[in-house]
Amino acid sequence: MKAMILAAGKGTRVRPITNEMPKPMIPILRKPVMESIVELLRAHSVREIVVNTSHLAPVIENYFRDGNQLGVHIAYSYEGYMTDDGLEGKALGSAGGMKRIQEFSGFFDETFIVLCGDAWIDLDISAALRQHRENGGIATIILQEVPHEEVHKYGVVKLNEQQRIVQFQEKPKPEEAVSNLINTGIYIFEPEIFNYIPSGVEYDIGGQLFPALVSAGERFFGVKMDFQWVDIGSVPDVWAATRKALLGEIEGFRMPGKQVRPGVWTGINVSIDWNMVKIKPPVYIGSSTKVEAGSKIIGPCMIGANCLVEAGAEISECLISDYTRIGNMATLDNKLIFGGDCISPDGTVLNVSETQVRWLVSDMRRVLNPSDIHDMMLFNNMLSFYGELAEEAEAA
Amino acid sequence: MKLSTHVQGEFTIAVIGETRMDAAVAPELKHQISQLLNDGATRIVLDLSAVTFMDSSSLGALVSLLKMVGNRGDLIIAGSKGIVADLFKLTRMDRVFRMADSVDAALGAVAA
């Protein structure tokens, strides 16, 4: 079997993270979800994978290169143009992207699987393929059962007794939903599917191709599979996925680094005086990160590589990306720190440069300027003054 | 900078009418509130419920106003929300200022 990974989306619901990183590259505890997908494909003997890229394509292409390091062959189908201002993506839609590859080389000359690059999964691909072959249709959609109140977030599918798909609903209201079986964005196709995809136009699998199959009376199927599906389609999803991984709630997820004490994992070359730092597990601390004495880290918490957590900093239930300096006065509670943005799980964004608090949180390689130092001293003085007052009041 | 004030009991309620409190409004903010202090107001509730953005310079202006008030009175921050509330918490200034969810809550808390 061959595979295609859909990686051309702009990831608008995951901004600002996707301003610098395409969605498939968003890591769950250091590993991009797309890397986990490639590993899963390989475990099921899928060795030839084409990836359609567009938004921030080089980030994906420079990471996976030709796939050799993961034991697979990876090729890219770039959707867009090079202009004087650089690359400008123009995505063709999921089905349009497939068609482009097929017209280029006829790559899909056998049964193939198509997956979105935006979820961590442990689908038994071999079992799904067997069911696809038994049913014998032109296409199979991998379905999952969700609680009825969650159907509004997904594409809903209705099957008949033979598992044939008879109806589609895009994000229906729970009271109008025809079932609680949802499209997971994982599909198995036969090459004949290309008869239904027009060439040279934007065309979507869920929104256009499947409705076209239904109206043409084509035989295609849905199979309900039981597997873990950890979506990272939005900022709250990214945070939820990271928490789950840290809490050990994703079965089979391999923690990065080594466990140095119960519930605490680190990379290598980490500088921490364990007796002088307060840590509540589960916590992951990346390689080459320094955690100064007198700081506090409350899990579930993930701190990236090459970070500096200064003495006095308090970090509670956060996801901190690489090369972040957390100043001594900072209190971070339920935040994602990403490329100079301090993001709340509900998606509100405090940009540390716009709010001029780079004296407190910034890239750890950045040199503080006089205005940073002025602010730092002003706020530090205030805090120590009022801190002492509070202590006096307590004593009295 | 848009600022409206009214007196309620022994409190002066100052309502910020700007959505953005950045370096452009910080000096004016400092000037207007210190004017209130000079005019004899000692217990001020600053209503930030209309503010959707604040930066370090405006927060710094509030800090220096708090210094001015010293132990002669109060400067209570009311109604901060979203990234404004985040900024207070991030910089620990929520431990320096008296914070209240709303003006009513501020007055209630002080009365209690």
Automatic annotation (TrEMBL), chain A:
Sequence intervals crossing the membrane: none
Top-level taxon of origin: Bacteria
Gene3D superfamilies cross-referenced by the UniProt entry: Hexapeptide repeat proteins, Spore Coat Polysaccharide Biosynthesis Protein SpsA, Chain A
Segments forming domain Nucleotidyl transferase: 2-245
PANTHER family: SUGAR-1-PHOSPHATE GUANYL TRANSFERASE
Protein name: NDP-sugar synthase
UniProtKB/TrEMBL annotation, chain B:
SUPFAM superfamilies: SpoIIaa-like (SSF52091)
CDD domains per UniProt: STAS_anti-anti-sigma_factors (cd07043)
Domain (STAS): residue spans on this chain: 21-110
Pfam families for this protein: STAS
PANTHER family in the record: ANTI-SIGMA FACTOR ANTAGONIST TM_1081-RELATED, ANTI-SIGMA FACTOR ANTAGONIST TM_1081-RELATED-RELATED
Family: Belongs to the anti-sigma-factor antagonist family.
Protein name: Anti-sigma factor antagonist
